[in-house]
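Lab notebook, bench 4. Continuing the backlog of folding jobs that were queued last week. Each job is logged with the same field layout so the records can be merged later without manual cleanup. Today's entry covers Beta sliding clamp, a 367-residue chain. Filled in by technician R.K.

JOB TYPE: sequence-to-structure
TARGET: Beta sliding clamp
LENGTH: 367
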Amino acid sequence: MQFSISREALLKPLQMVSGVVERRQTLPVLSNVLLVLKESELSLTGTDLEVELIGRVQVHGPSEAGEITVPARKLLDICKSLSDDSSIEISVVDNKLKLKSGRSRFSLATLPAAEFPDVDEEPDTFSLVITQVRLRELLEATSFAMAQQDVRYYLNGMLFEVGADYLRVVATDGHRLAMETLKIASSAKDTQQLILPRKGIMELARLLSDEGGDIELTFGQNHIRAAIPEFTFTSKLVDGKFPDYNRVLPKGGDRVLSGACQELRQAFSRASILSNEKYRGVRVMLSDGEMRIFANNPEQEEAEELVSVDYDSEALEIGFNVSYLIDVLSTLTSERVKITLSDPNSSALLEAEEGSEALYVVMPMRL
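JOB STATUS: finished
OUTPUT FIELD FOLLOWS
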């Protein structure tokens, strides 16, 4: 194996692929990136057995085909440390990867490509095509509500529900829920529900760019694959049953308020400074045309905020985890938010007044 490549061309796919590789591995080869040169295309593959990412880059000039695995982190650190416009020569001699650039010389340990694990190939069941920008917006609008290290492992991920004419993504940690639906054609015969793991969602989001065109999502029984010209991403699906989100969506709320997103977010952020660091609870009191936000903590410190809102129902007092409200208000891209409530023991439904299909549910807290 032998080729020359500019630092710039190698660095971008190497950075993306190295993000998948875990630092601590049970199998030494999983700390490595697989380099495969065929004709004039170099592919770089990283995996942690759950998620796999393949980056592709063209190699110009004379080259010799081959395949090898090298430590991902070390190769990335070497490439980062070289000057911006440098050229890199790579060859494999006596089971060592030799890297030359200017006056620098490096020799890296390798492991045979045959030891590198393959993602099991399986038949695809259905697919859909979506723009990278739109998919990234969907993930950004909902991914914050995924659980982290919950024993209910199916919550540590995101539900993709695909029908013949829509894609719906749902994330929940049991205390709050985020959901958005997009009208889109797919090849799904009937409604399908699949759960992507948290790491898969994070790596997929990193892959998407504003300048990128369409991305094809292909779903199998146990995997999802996303393909764009320079990368192929594959993730295993979570084997589990996602909770019925329709039962969580509040029905029949008769108290509706609307307010400025930015103003409410800033008020909640200020009040949160003096909330209990463990429980993060704030008390919200609604009366005609105004919202009062109260926070206190075990040190007997208190905060009070007054915000003007459109509200003309009965007075209401309700408690919330302030972090959950701030997360939603930070995610909404509209100027105003609509909040639907029914009583102090029922969840609140938050949504943009216009421009977004996203729905957010936040459970109340007893204070």
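OBSERVATION: The longest strand covers residues 51-58.
SIGNED: R.K.
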